[in-house]
Write a structure and sequence with these properties.
single chain, five-stranded parallel beta sheet, globular, Tscrpt_reg_LuxR_C, alpha/beta, 2 domains, 10 helices, Arc Repressor Mutant, subunit A, transcription, DNA-binding, Rossmann fold, phosphoprotein, about 15% strand
Length: about 220
């Protein structure tokens, strides 16, 4: 099954480089290129790619707003967005995940790692490495208005084990690591993750992390 990709970046040279890389992969193809956020939203709506490689700083509308529009629209809600930037992501990671991005990488990432990230997102998972999770935790720690917020009713439908798995997801652990930490198999951990996605109506693990922290189930530190 071929993974379809749209590339959004305001620099033609960067777009061209990504296109050559992606098209060279046997399991991927580029459907189109966008030079700004508005074009990215339009292409996503017309072409329905599996993954959009999205630059953050672009004209007309930026990558974060474009991501928000793509993930919020009914006809493109299945499209995954991988945010790419030349800047350190500290100031962007929270906003990007809030907008619905499923992954976050710097542009100096190794080519093979970028291709693997596209595959991870296309498979329905999120690219949320522990270092990105730590940045997200710091963002929540710096928001005093969160303190003492109650767990909403949406979490009351989760079993004790599902809440335990959600806590581990918020720590940035993968299914194998969650299984080892909770003394269950990786397959069982995967099943719990799938149920959490369904019950909480989350797009991917990135949104599960957001829910864990915003609900108060998990607190920084």
């Amino acid at each position: 099954m071929t993974i379809t990709v749209v590339i959004a970046d305001d620099q033609a040279l960067v777009r061209g480089g990504f296109r050559v890389l992606v098209d060279a992969a046997a399991d991927m193809t580029v459907l189109g290129e966008a030079a700004d956020g508005a074009e990215a939203v339009d292409l996503a709506a017309r072409l329905h790619p599996d993954v959009v490689l999205m630059d953050i700083r672009m004209p007309v509308i930026d990558g974060i707003e474009a991501t928000r529009r793509i993930t919020a629209a009914d006809d493109t809600e299945a499209t995954k967005v991988l945010m790419l930037t030349t800047f350190d992501p500290d100031e962007y990671v929270y906003a990007a995940l809030r907008a619905g991005a499923s992954g976050f990488l710097l542009k100096d990432t190794r080519p093979e790692d970028l291709l693997e990230a596209i595959r991870v997102l296309a498979a329905g998972d999120a690219l949320l490495a522990p270092n990105v999770t730590r940045r997200l935790i710091k963002e929540f720690a710096d928001r005093p208005e969160r303190n003492g917020r109650p767990v909403p009713d949406v979490l009351s439908g989760l079993s004790k084990r599902e809440q335990e798995v959600l806590v581990e997801i918020a720590g940035g652990w993968n299914n194998t690591e969650i299984g080892a930490r909770l003394h269950i198999s990786a397959a069982t951990a995967k099943t719990h993750v799938s149920r959490l996605l369904l019950k909480l109506r989350a797009r991917d693990r990135a949104q599960l992390v957001m829910i864990a922290y915003e609900s108060g189930l998990v607190t920084p530190g």
